[in-house]
UniProtKB/TrEMBL annotation:
Belongs to the RTRAF family. It comes from the Eukaryota. Pfam families: RLL (PF10036). It comes from Columbina picui (Picui ground-dove). InterPro entries: RTRAF. This is RNA transcription, translation and transport factor protein. The gene is Rtraf.
Amino acid sequence: DETEFRNFIVWLEDQKIRHYKIEDRGNLRNIHSDDWPKSFEKYMKDVNCPFKIHERQETVDWLLGLAVRLEYGDNADKYKDSTPDGAKNTDNTAKNAEPLINLDVNNPDFKAGVMALANLLQIQRHDDYLVMLKVSFRRLTQDAIAKASQSKEGLPVALEKHILGFDTGDAVLNEAAQILRLLHIEELRELQTKINEAIVAVQAIIADPKTDHRLGKVGR
């Protein structure tokens, strides 16, 4: 939505990036102006965004990365000693190392779920439902590896154009995080494409009513 997009840009500038002085944000805040795209284009140049005005997804991701970096810079003391939740309690980590331990294998819902998954993956039935579940996991893992091994053609990406938004202290980890973010964006694009295709398919159906001249009306 165009209005939401413009409000989002204004919010980022007002609350996080704050590149302009308050009195200089008037043109950007005037989201209903016909000249807003020009103001936004100037703003992108002023913050040194490497993308063009029509590359919205890339621009949004870049601006978010800039906002995260500035937020971290303003609160470095607060975040520098932060520890991931999963690393705070080693006991919980050990307990969760084997997720199948606490499963109730006699639960009817569990059995029905395992059978449905086994049928879907065409796995031979076994008296031990836990064995079937583990085989299903193994099959899913193999399928995932096979899919990941399929090569995809694409254009080279300049990682230096994408600000990560935080620094791990390790150049290799920073580059890996940038790659993961770009891969996530690609997955979101594929999802959006599928959603758009579904919407078009539904619209094609509802926009093509059948006409029955004998009844003198249009409809199904």
